[in-house]
Design brief:
Order of helices and strands: HHHEHHHEEEHEHEHEEHEHHEEEHEE
Distance between the termini: 31 Å
Shape: globular
Protein backbone atom coordinates (compact mmCIF):
# COMPACT_ATOMS: atom_id res chain seq x y z
CA UNK A 1 0.00 0.00 0.00
CA UNK A 2 0.95 3.67 0.09
CA UNK A 3 3.98 5.00 1.93
CA UNK A 4 3.70 7.58 4.71
CA UNK A 5 4.74 10.32 2.29
CA UNK A 6 2.08 9.23 -0.21
CA UNK A 7 -0.65 9.25 2.44
CA UNK A 8 0.30 12.78 3.49
CA UNK A 9 0.38 13.95 -0.14
CA UNK A 10 -3.00 12.31 -0.83
CA UNK A 11 -4.54 14.07 2.17
CA UNK A 12 -3.06 17.39 1.12
CA UNK A 13 -4.41 16.86 -2.42
CA UNK A 14 -7.85 16.35 -0.88
CA UNK A 15 -7.57 19.70 0.92
CA UNK A 16 -6.60 18.43 4.39
CA UNK A 17 -4.28 20.88 6.13
CA UNK A 18 -1.18 18.89 7.03
CA UNK A 19 2.42 19.96 7.13
CA UNK A 20 4.54 17.73 4.84
CA UNK A 21 6.69 16.88 7.89
CA UNK A 22 3.79 16.18 10.26
CA UNK A 23 4.56 13.75 13.08
CA UNK A 24 1.06 12.25 12.99
CA UNK A 25 1.22 8.46 13.31
CA UNK A 26 0.64 6.32 10.23
CA UNK A 27 -2.46 4.82 11.84
CA UNK A 28 -4.08 8.23 12.31
CA UNK A 29 -3.03 9.27 8.80
CA UNK A 30 -4.67 6.12 7.43
CA UNK A 31 -7.90 6.72 9.35
CA UNK A 32 -8.05 10.35 8.21
CA UNK A 33 -7.42 9.32 4.59
CA UNK A 34 -10.19 6.70 4.79
CA UNK A 35 -12.62 9.29 6.14
CA UNK A 36 -11.65 11.73 3.40
CA UNK A 37 -12.19 9.08 0.70
CA UNK A 38 -15.62 8.31 2.18
CA UNK A 39 -16.46 12.02 2.02
CA UNK A 40 -15.22 12.21 -1.58
CA UNK A 41 -17.79 9.51 -2.43
CA UNK A 42 -20.56 11.30 -0.45
CA UNK A 43 -20.85 7.99 1.36
CA UNK A 44 -22.78 9.18 4.43
CA UNK A 45 -25.49 10.61 2.15
CA UNK A 46 -25.56 7.83 -0.41
CA UNK A 47 -25.11 4.87 1.95
CA UNK A 48 -26.32 5.89 5.42
CA UNK A 49 -25.90 2.29 6.63
CA UNK A 50 -22.38 2.11 5.10
CA UNK A 51 -23.34 -1.13 3.36
CA UNK A 52 -24.40 -1.86 -0.20
CA UNK A 53 -26.32 -4.94 -1.35
CA UNK A 54 -26.29 -4.97 -5.16
CA UNK A 55 -29.00 -7.66 -5.14
CA UNK A 56 -31.49 -4.98 -4.05
CA UNK A 57 -30.64 -2.53 -6.87
CA UNK A 58 -31.92 -2.23 -10.41
CA UNK A 59 -29.70 -1.80 -13.46
CA UNK A 60 -28.60 1.71 -14.41
CA UNK A 61 -30.27 2.92 -17.58
CA UNK A 62 -28.17 4.74 -20.16
CA UNK A 63 -24.55 5.95 -20.05
CA UNK A 64 -22.89 6.46 -16.68
CA UNK A 65 -19.76 8.44 -17.56
CA UNK A 66 -21.43 11.84 -17.13
CA UNK A 67 -22.25 10.99 -13.50
CA UNK A 68 -18.56 10.30 -12.87
CA UNK A 69 -17.68 13.92 -13.68
CA UNK A 70 -18.26 15.07 -10.10
CA UNK A 71 -16.62 18.47 -9.99
CA UNK A 72 -17.26 21.90 -8.49
CA UNK A 73 -17.10 25.53 -9.57
CA UNK A 74 -13.41 25.80 -8.72
CA UNK A 75 -12.42 22.98 -11.05
CA UNK A 76 -14.54 24.43 -13.84
CA UNK A 77 -12.70 27.77 -13.88
CA UNK A 78 -8.88 27.76 -14.17
CA UNK A 79 -8.51 31.24 -12.61
CA UNK A 80 -10.70 30.30 -9.63
CA UNK A 81 -8.82 27.01 -9.31
CA UNK A 82 -5.54 28.88 -9.03
CA UNK A 83 -6.98 31.14 -6.30
CA UNK A 84 -9.11 28.77 -4.24
CA UNK A 85 -8.13 25.14 -4.91
CA UNK A 86 -8.47 23.03 -1.77
CA UNK A 87 -5.32 21.16 -2.75
CA UNK A 88 -2.20 22.50 -1.03
CA UNK A 89 0.43 20.41 -2.81
CA UNK A 90 3.95 21.65 -3.24
CA UNK A 91 5.55 21.53 -6.73
CA UNK A 92 7.29 18.22 -5.95
CA UNK A 93 4.09 16.44 -4.88
CA UNK A 94 1.85 14.58 -7.36
CA UNK A 95 -1.94 14.92 -7.29
CA UNK A 96 -2.82 11.24 -7.20
CA UNK A 97 -6.38 12.01 -6.12
CA UNK A 98 -7.17 13.89 -9.34
CA UNK A 99 -5.45 11.18 -11.37
CA UNK A 100 -7.56 8.52 -9.65
CA UNK A 101 -10.76 10.44 -10.42
CA UNK A 102 -9.72 10.65 -14.08
CA UNK A 103 -9.17 6.88 -14.06
CA UNK A 104 -12.68 6.34 -12.64
CA UNK A 105 -14.13 8.50 -15.41
CA UNK A 106 -12.19 6.44 -18.00
CA UNK A 107 -13.58 3.22 -16.51
CA UNK A 108 -17.14 4.55 -16.82
CA UNK A 109 -16.44 5.69 -20.37
CA UNK A 110 -15.13 2.27 -21.40
CA UNK A 111 -18.03 0.48 -19.72
CA UNK A 112 -20.45 2.71 -21.66
CA UNK A 113 -18.63 1.71 -24.85
CA UNK A 114 -19.48 -1.92 -24.16
CA UNK A 115 -16.12 -3.19 -22.97
CA UNK A 116 -16.13 -6.16 -20.60
CA UNK A 117 -12.84 -5.27 -18.95
CA UNK A 118 -9.84 -3.00 -19.08
CA UNK A 119 -6.25 -2.78 -17.92
CA UNK A 120 -4.95 0.14 -15.84
CA UNK A 121 -1.19 0.57 -16.03
CA UNK A 122 1.47 3.22 -15.65
CA UNK A 123 3.38 4.51 -18.65
CA UNK A 124 6.35 2.22 -17.96
CA UNK A 125 4.10 -0.85 -17.45
CA UNK A 126 5.65 -1.50 -14.03
CA UNK A 127 2.38 -1.73 -12.09
CA UNK A 128 -1.13 -2.43 -13.26
CA UNK A 129 -4.69 -3.40 -12.41
CA UNK A 130 -7.01 -5.67 -14.37
CA UNK A 131 -10.62 -4.49 -14.07
CA UNK A 132 -13.60 -6.62 -15.07
CA UNK A 133 -16.93 -4.80 -15.27
CA UNK A 134 -19.64 -6.80 -13.53
CA UNK A 135 -22.57 -4.38 -13.67
CA UNK A 136 -23.67 -0.76 -13.31
CA UNK A 137 -26.57 -0.37 -10.90
CA UNK A 138 -29.01 2.40 -9.97
CA UNK A 139 -28.45 3.77 -6.45
CA UNK A 140 -30.53 6.92 -7.11
CA UNK A 141 -31.39 9.04 -10.13
CA UNK A 142 -28.00 10.79 -10.05
CA UNK A 143 -25.79 8.00 -8.77
CA UNK A 144 -24.67 4.88 -10.65
CA UNK A 145 -22.77 2.16 -8.81
CA UNK A 146 -20.14 0.33 -10.83
CA UNK A 147 -19.60 -3.23 -9.58
CA UNK A 148 -16.28 -4.72 -10.61
CA UNK A 149 -13.75 -7.48 -10.07
CA UNK A 150 -10.11 -6.47 -9.93
CA UNK A 151 -6.58 -7.69 -9.40
CA UNK A 152 -3.36 -5.74 -9.25
CA UNK A 153 0.35 -6.30 -9.52
CA UNK A 154 3.04 -4.99 -7.22
CA UNK A 155 6.55 -4.53 -8.63
CA UNK A 156 8.60 -7.59 -7.69
CA UNK A 157 5.58 -9.44 -6.31
CA UNK A 158 3.08 -11.80 -8.00
CA UNK A 159 1.00 -11.59 -10.08
CA UNK A 160 3.37 -10.16 -12.70
CA UNK A 161 2.14 -7.66 -15.28
CA UNK A 162 2.09 -10.45 -17.87
CA UNK A 163 -0.57 -12.28 -15.88
CA UNK A 164 -2.82 -9.20 -15.75
CA UNK A 165 -2.32 -8.69 -19.48
CA UNK A 166 -3.31 -12.31 -20.02
CA UNK A 167 -6.52 -11.78 -18.04
CA UNK A 168 -7.30 -8.71 -20.10
CA UNK A 169 -6.75 -10.63 -23.33
CA UNK A 170 -9.03 -13.42 -22.11
CA UNK A 171 -11.67 -10.76 -21.53
CA UNK A 172 -11.32 -9.63 -25.15
CA UNK A 173 -9.62 -6.28 -24.49
CA UNK A 174 -6.06 -6.76 -25.83
CA UNK A 175 -5.43 -3.13 -26.83
CA UNK A 176 -7.57 -1.14 -24.40
CA UNK A 177 -6.02 0.29 -21.26
CA UNK A 178 -6.12 3.28 -18.93
CA UNK A 179 -2.90 5.11 -18.11
CA UNK A 180 -2.52 5.92 -14.41
CA UNK A 181 0.56 6.46 -12.25
CA UNK A 182 1.60 3.97 -9.60
CA UNK A 183 0.55 6.41 -6.89
CA UNK A 184 -2.97 6.87 -8.28
CA UNK A 185 -3.29 3.10 -8.67
CA UNK A 186 -2.41 2.64 -5.01
CA UNK A 187 -5.05 5.20 -4.02
CA UNK A 188 -7.65 3.46 -6.20
CA UNK A 189 -6.74 0.12 -4.61
CA UNK A 190 -7.26 1.66 -1.17
CA UNK A 191 -10.67 2.97 -2.26
CA UNK A 192 -11.66 -0.42 -3.69
CA UNK A 193 -10.52 -2.21 -0.54
CA UNK A 194 -12.60 0.11 1.64
CA UNK A 195 -15.68 -0.42 -0.54
CA UNK A 196 -15.18 -4.19 -0.80
CA UNK A 197 -15.84 -4.44 2.95
CA UNK A 198 -19.25 -2.84 2.42
CA UNK A 199 -20.54 -5.66 0.22
CA UNK A 200 -22.37 -8.62 1.82
CA UNK A 201 -20.65 -12.02 1.66
CA UNK A 202 -23.79 -13.39 0.02
CA UNK A 203 -23.24 -11.35 -3.13
CA UNK A 204 -21.00 -13.40 -5.41
CA UNK A 205 -21.26 -12.75 -9.17
CA UNK A 206 -20.02 -15.48 -11.55
CA UNK A 207 -16.26 -15.69 -12.16
CA UNK A 208 -14.02 -17.26 -14.76
CA UNK A 209 -11.32 -19.71 -13.54
CA UNK A 210 -8.58 -17.11 -14.04
CA UNK A 211 -10.56 -14.63 -11.89
CA UNK A 212 -10.54 -16.78 -8.75
CA UNK A 213 -8.10 -14.42 -7.00
CA UNK A 214 -9.85 -11.25 -8.16
CA UNK A 215 -11.39 -9.06 -5.45
CA UNK A 216 -14.99 -7.83 -5.61
CA UNK A 217 -15.74 -4.15 -5.01
CA UNK A 218 -17.60 -1.11 -6.33
CA UNK A 219 -17.00 2.54 -7.16
CA UNK A 220 -19.25 5.58 -6.89
CA UNK A 221 -18.87 9.01 -8.52
CA UNK A 222 -15.99 10.57 -6.60
CA UNK A 223 -15.18 14.26 -6.41
CA UNK A 224 -13.63 17.08 -4.37
CA UNK A 225 -14.59 17.52 -0.73
CA UNK A 226 -17.40 19.88 0.17
CA UNK A 227 -16.83 22.94 2.35
CA UNK A 228 -18.52 21.17 5.27
CA UNK A 229 -16.31 18.07 4.91
CA UNK A 230 -13.18 20.21 4.59
CA UNK A 231 -14.19 22.09 7.71
CA UNK A 232 -14.88 18.91 9.66
CA UNK A 233 -11.69 17.09 8.67
CA UNK A 234 -9.50 20.16 9.14
CA UNK A 235 -10.91 20.90 12.59
CA UNK A 236 -10.01 17.40 13.73
CA UNK A 237 -6.29 18.04 13.71
CA UNK A 238 -5.42 16.45 17.03
CA UNK A 239 -2.34 17.77 18.80
CA UNK A 240 -1.12 21.02 17.24
CA UNK A 241 2.46 19.71 17.28
CA UNK A 242 2.41 15.97 16.56
CA UNK A 243 -1.12 15.35 15.27
CA UNK A 244 -1.87 12.62 17.79
CA UNK A 245 -5.05 12.57 19.89
CA UNK A 246 -5.28 15.82 21.86
CA UNK A 247 -6.36 15.91 25.51
CA UNK A 248 -5.85 19.51 26.64
CA UNK A 249 -6.21 23.07 25.34
CA UNK A 250 -3.95 26.04 25.78
CA UNK A 251 -5.23 27.45 29.06
CA UNK A 252 -4.66 31.07 27.99
CA UNK A 253 -6.50 31.25 24.66
CA UNK A 254 -8.10 27.78 24.26
CA UNK A 255 -7.60 27.96 20.48
CA UNK A 256 -5.17 25.04 20.09
CA UNK A 257 -4.96 21.56 21.58
CA UNK A 258 -2.07 19.35 22.64
CA UNK A 259 -1.54 15.71 23.56
CA UNK A 260 0.53 16.61 26.61
CA UNK A 261 2.91 19.01 28.34
CA UNK A 262 5.91 18.12 26.15
CA UNK A 263 4.19 19.10 22.90
CA UNK A 264 2.68 22.22 24.48
CA UNK A 265 6.15 23.37 25.53
CA UNK A 266 7.58 22.51 22.10
CA UNK A 267 4.81 24.40 20.29
CA UNK A 268 4.91 27.55 22.40
CA UNK A 269 7.41 29.38 20.15
CA UNK A 270 5.10 29.18 17.12
CA UNK A 271 1.87 29.63 19.11
CA UNK A 272 2.73 32.49 21.47
CA UNK A 273 2.00 35.33 19.00
CA UNK A 274 -1.53 34.09 18.30
CA UNK A 275 -2.06 33.19 21.97
CA UNK A 276 -1.16 36.63 23.23
CA UNK A 277 -3.24 38.31 20.52
CA UNK A 278 -6.36 36.33 21.47
CA UNK A 279 -5.77 36.70 25.18
CA UNK A 280 -5.40 40.48 24.89
CA UNK A 281 -8.05 40.92 22.21
CA UNK A 282 -11.39 42.64 22.73
CA UNK A 283 -14.32 40.21 22.66
CA UNK A 284 -17.73 41.66 21.80
CA UNK A 285 -21.00 39.84 22.37
CA UNK A 286 -23.56 40.20 19.60
CA UNK A 287 -26.99 38.75 18.95
CA UNK A 288 -27.98 37.35 15.56
CA UNK A 289 -31.07 36.16 13.68
CA UNK A 290 -32.14 33.22 11.55
CA UNK A 291 -32.35 33.40 7.77
CA UNK A 292 -36.14 33.13 7.99
CA UNK A 293 -36.28 36.17 10.31
CA UNK A 294 -33.72 38.17 8.36
CA UNK A 295 -35.18 37.62 4.89
CA UNK A 296 -38.85 36.66 5.41
CA UNK A 297 -39.57 37.24 1.73
CA UNK A 298 -37.56 34.07 1.01
CA UNK A 299 -39.49 31.84 3.43
CA UNK A 300 -40.30 28.54 1.75
CA UNK A 301 -37.36 28.78 -0.65
CA UNK A 302 -34.93 25.83 -0.33
CA UNK A 303 -32.16 26.76 2.08
CA UNK A 304 -29.61 24.95 -0.11
CA UNK A 305 -29.85 27.83 -2.60
CA UNK A 306 -28.28 30.10 0.04
CA UNK A 307 -25.62 27.51 0.87
CA UNK A 308 -24.23 26.95 -2.62
CA UNK A 309 -20.60 27.99 -2.91
CA UNK A 310 -17.52 27.31 -4.97
CA UNK A 311 -17.07 23.93 -3.25
CA UNK A 312 -20.61 22.70 -3.98
CA UNK A 313 -20.36 19.60 -6.15
CA UNK A 314 -22.39 19.11 -9.30
CA UNK A 315 -23.76 15.79 -8.01
CA UNK A 316 -24.94 17.43 -4.77
CA UNK A 317 -27.32 19.78 -6.60
CA UNK A 318 -30.59 17.91 -6.17
CA UNK A 319 -34.07 18.84 -7.25
CA UNK A 320 -36.26 20.85 -4.93
CA UNK A 321 -37.95 17.71 -3.64
CA UNK A 322 -34.69 16.88 -1.84
CA UNK A 323 -34.22 20.30 -0.25
CA UNK A 324 -35.25 21.70 3.11
CA UNK A 325 -36.99 25.05 3.45
CA UNK A 326 -35.65 28.00 5.43
CA UNK A 327 -36.09 27.61 9.17
CA UNK A 328 -35.95 29.60 12.40
CA UNK A 329 -34.12 26.78 14.20
CA UNK A 330 -30.53 27.29 15.30
CA UNK A 331 -27.97 24.56 14.66
CA UNK A 332 -26.50 22.38 17.42
CA UNK A 333 -23.62 23.82 19.42
CA UNK A 334 -20.78 21.51 18.42
CA UNK A 335 -18.10 23.86 19.80
CA UNK A 336 -19.26 24.11 23.41
CA UNK A 337 -17.51 27.07 25.05
CA UNK A 338 -14.34 26.65 22.96
CA UNK A 339 -13.26 29.30 20.44
CA UNK A 340 -13.66 28.55 16.74
CA UNK A 341 -13.13 30.40 13.46
CA UNK A 342 -16.05 32.13 11.76
CA UNK A 343 -16.47 33.84 8.41
CA UNK A 344 -18.12 37.28 8.45
CA UNK A 345 -19.70 38.31 5.12
CA UNK A 346 -21.43 41.54 4.16
CA UNK A 347 -23.50 42.61 1.19
CA UNK A 348 -24.18 46.15 2.37
CA UNK A 349 -27.51 45.40 4.05
CA UNK A 350 -27.06 42.01 5.70
CA UNK A 351 -24.28 40.34 7.66
CA UNK A 352 -23.90 36.56 7.47
CA UNK A 353 -21.77 34.62 9.97
CA UNK A 354 -21.01 30.89 9.81
CA UNK A 355 -18.38 28.30 10.72
CA UNK A 356 -16.61 25.94 8.33
CA UNK A 357 -18.91 23.03 9.10
CA UNK A 358 -22.08 25.14 8.71
CA UNK A 359 -23.18 23.99 12.16
CA UNK A 360 -23.68 27.70 12.82
CA UNK A 361 -25.23 29.97 10.16
CA UNK A 362 -26.72 33.25 11.43
CA UNK A 363 -27.57 36.70 10.09
CA UNK A 364 -27.87 40.31 11.14
CA UNK A 365 -29.90 42.91 9.26
CA UNK A 366 -28.76 46.53 9.07
CA UNK A 367 -32.25 47.67 10.05
CA UNK A 368 -32.35 45.31 13.07
CA UNK A 369 -29.20 46.48 14.86
CA UNK A 370 -27.37 49.29 13.05
CA UNK A 371 -24.55 49.59 15.62
CA UNK A 372 -23.51 45.93 15.48
CA UNK A 373 -24.06 45.83 11.73
CA UNK A 374 -21.61 48.69 11.19
CA UNK A 375 -19.02 47.05 13.45
CA UNK A 376 -19.21 43.75 11.56
CA UNK A 377 -19.41 45.48 8.18
CA UNK A 378 -16.19 47.35 8.99
CA UNK A 379 -14.47 44.11 10.02
CA UNK A 380 -15.55 42.37 6.79
CA UNK A 381 -14.18 45.35 4.88
CA UNK A 382 -10.66 44.49 6.06
CA UNK A 383 -10.75 41.14 4.28
CA UNK A 384 -11.04 39.72 0.78
CA UNK A 385 -12.30 42.42 -1.62
CA UNK A 386 -13.85 44.22 1.33
CA UNK A 387 -16.60 41.61 1.56
CA UNK A 388 -15.51 38.99 4.09
CA UNK A 389 -13.08 38.30 6.89
CA UNK A 390 -12.26 35.58 9.42
CA UNK A 391 -12.27 35.95 13.20
CA UNK A 392 -12.32 33.86 16.36
CA UNK A 393 -15.66 33.46 18.16
CA UNK A 394 -17.32 31.62 21.05
CA UNK A 395 -20.93 30.59 21.51
CA UNK A 396 -22.62 32.50 24.33
CA UNK A 397 -26.14 31.25 23.72
CA UNK A 398 -28.16 29.90 20.80
CA UNK A 399 -28.23 33.24 19.00
CA UNK A 400 -25.33 35.08 20.67
CA UNK A 401 -21.65 35.03 19.79
CA UNK A 402 -18.65 36.58 21.49
CA UNK A 403 -16.30 37.68 18.68
CA UNK A 404 -12.67 38.81 18.88
CA UNK A 405 -12.94 41.54 16.24
CA UNK A 406 -9.66 43.38 16.74
CA UNK A 407 -7.37 40.38 16.15
CA UNK A 408 -6.98 38.97 12.63
CA UNK A 409 -6.00 35.36 12.00
CA UNK A 410 -2.32 34.94 11.00
CA UNK A 411 -3.58 33.87 7.56
CA UNK A 412 -6.97 33.22 5.99
CA UNK A 413 -8.03 29.57 6.31
CA UNK A 414 -8.86 27.46 3.26
CA UNK A 415 -12.60 27.89 3.28
Amino acid sequence: MATRHEMISNLRALGIELHPDTKMSEERLKKKLHRALDCAQLLSKRLPSSTLDPANLKSWKGPSQKAFVAGNAIEGHPEMNAMHSASQLSPDEDDHFSEMRQALYSLAQQKDQGLKATLIQDEDEISGMCIKFVDVLHLDDKTPVMILLYDHTVPGVLPPMEQLQFCARELCTPHIHVVASQGSQKLLQRLLLLNSRRLPASYQPPRQPYERNFKLSFVLPTGPLSMVDLGTLNEEKGCDVCGEKATQRCSACESVMYCGKACQTHGWRSHKTQCKALSLGTWSTMKFQSLADTLPMFNGIPVEIFNMNRYTRSDEMHGEEGWASTTRDVGPNIHGTNPFVIKIQTNGDTIRVYDRRRSLDVYLMKSWNLENFLILHAAAGTGFRGLKCYRWAKRVSDWELSICLDRKLPEDPRW
